[in-house]
Input
Amino acid sequence: MKILVIRFSSMGDIIYTTPVVRCLKKQIPGAEVHFLIKPAFKYIYDNNPYVDKLLLLKPTLSATIQDIKAEQYDHIIDLHNNLRTAIIKLRTGIPASTYKKQPIKKWLSLKFKLKLIAPIHLVDRYLKTVKSLGVVNDGQPIDYYVKTEHQLNKLLPPSHQSGYVAFVIGATHFTKRMPNDKIISICRQLTTPVVLLGGNDVKTNGQIIADAIGASIYNACGITTLDESVYLVSQAKNIIGFDTGLTHIAEAFNKPIVSVWGGTVPDLLGVQPYMVKEVLVAGVDLSCRPCSKFGLEKCPLGHFKCMNDMPEDNIVQFANKWL
Output
């Protein structure tokens, strides 16, 4: 059986498709599994042994559809469920199973602070899509395969090579990030060195934090590649991070994780840490929260209490427990 799985973006959503791909490959005898993805996110499936071929979304949908037709698939697993995937299914005529997004319930839950979405993880929601093929959850974590054999002594100073907390301070949107002074306060209470991780967009933030604390902090933001950052996460004693892709990828390594949530909430999207034994989900119970599904560029009410009022003691105690 030749199967095409579709999920174009984004990092967090794609990383949670990996158990579906693994289960398809292992549970359907002789299955050939291909994955259609945006080029920017192909790294998530590089080196993944359960994908036989990656198809990259082309600039025109017609070109992508030509590629799909040429492969002569038996079945499509649509885990994105948007207009483009609907057109793909219509124009190829290939039998398909489609992920149910529940957009109306999500909108009502967000708008009126109702709990209409069951707190089921996105992995399990995805797996419902392939239930008709006889595929079931294997109870294993997400998959991520580091591309290169990295070495700590080439990525970190000697002071951090014997053990550290990986603190993922980056996130796409402001309302997902903790203010610098809050991060500084938490880092000062940790009993082991800290490696700050994130992209160029938070490199300056990382430097401010490192300058405020000193040698126990190493700012790797904007310095390490994504693959190197993932490697550093995999070698950390534990991880503190926000609602962002690198924090979700960290779940593949089953290290203790503090998952910190500001303006977004995990239950609405079903993206609380998956199959991780030791987890602390930190968030403040506020009437204005969540203010969005995916984060905003500023707090709509101006006070940003969801991060400014975040209790530090439980985060610090959990992080220090595993050092």
About this structure: The mean pLDDT is 94.
